[in-house]
Design brief:
248 residues; Rossmann fold; SIR2/SIRT2 'Small Domain'; 2 domains; 3-stranded antiparallel β-sheet; 9 strands; globular; disordered N terminus; binds adenosine-5-diphosphoribose
Length: 248
């Protein structure tokens, strides 16, 4: 009879979880091209030529040239206010917030994010990996050949550490886990052509969407809040909402 009285400390309150998922749009104001907008990367290059499983075998030189150019392009790019506020939020609420990005640039890191505070779902431009031993190397902003002609560990063939269409994306395991745990999903700067963010909004209790304009691949009626504006113009309001959501 007396055994049913529990110490108060055995009752725990669930920590509120927020998933911030970004795409190319968050880096657009820093001068990095998006993929599917007018003059975007996929308007000037064909996915099947430089970003599809197998193109390292059938179209190796052009594929390396494409990623060498992307790596060089991000060297002088600077994070914007949206990256900065998200880094601040993550560091203020490390247990509550997960930051996942489809972007392969390093603008969150340049804004002060530590590598263990962010998940790059589609890889990371500054990294090369060995097709044989799978070791990952930091090549900085160098062209692949400048970094090394072959794997420094096993002499195997190096490749950009980028997930190509048709390849497995190992980091999606984090996305699945975070979606199951999260109470609020915040989607910034993605057209939803690769990740079905409409489904995420249906799956999670509350959701925020910020893009420049509506996308054919997103049904925004499922989102609790929608902002069609530049990320830097609305990020302060979104950040304030996230803080209140976590605190209350
Ligand atoms: N602020 C907010 N959103 C913006 C801004 C901005 N300043 N500029 C553009 N956008 C939005 C556009 O409205 C568009 O919806 O960013 C989105 C960019 O969409 P995509 O170019 O399709 O980029 P993304 O969704 O990140 O692509 C997903 O596709 O090719 C792959 O691997 C690549 O990770 C990439 C994935």
């Amino acid at each position: 009879m007396f055994g049913i009285i529990k110490n108060k400390s055995t009752y725990t309150t669930k920590v509120k979880r927020v998933l911030i998922l970004s795409g190319a749009g968050i880096s657009a104001e820093s001068g990095i091209s998006t993929f599917r907008e007018a003059d975007g990367l996929w308007e000037n290059h064909r996915i099947k030529d430089v970003c599809t499983a197998g193109c390292l075998d059938t179209n190796k030189d052009a594929t390396h040239a494409f990623y060498n150019a992307r790596r060089k392009d991000i060297a002088d790019k600077k994070p914007n206010y949206a990256h900065q506020l998200i880094v601040e939020l993550k560091q203020k609420y490390p247990e509550n917030i997960a930051v996942l990005t489809q972007n392969v640039d390093d603008l969150f890191e340049k804004a002060g994010m530590n590598s263990d505070e962010i998940v790059h779902l589609h890889g990371f431009l500054k990294e090369l990996t060995c097709r044989d031993c799978e070791e990952v190397f930091d090549a900085g902003y160098q062209a692949q050949d400048k970094f090394a002609k072959s794997c420094p560990t096993c002499s195997g063939e190096l490749r950009p550490n980028i997930v190509f269409f048709g390849e497995v994306a190992p980091m999606y395991a984090h996305l699945t886990k975070e979606l199951q745990e999260c109470d609020l999903v915040v989607v910034i700067g993605t057209s939803g052509n690769v990740l079905d963010v409409t489904y995420f909004a249906q799956f999670v209790k509350e959701s925020i969407l910020n893009n420049l304009e509506p996308s054919n691949a997103i049904d925004d009626s499922y989102f609790s809040k929608v902002y069609y504006a530049k990320a830097t113009e609305v990020i302060a309001e979104i950040a304030e909402y996230i803080e209140e959501f976590i605190e209350n």
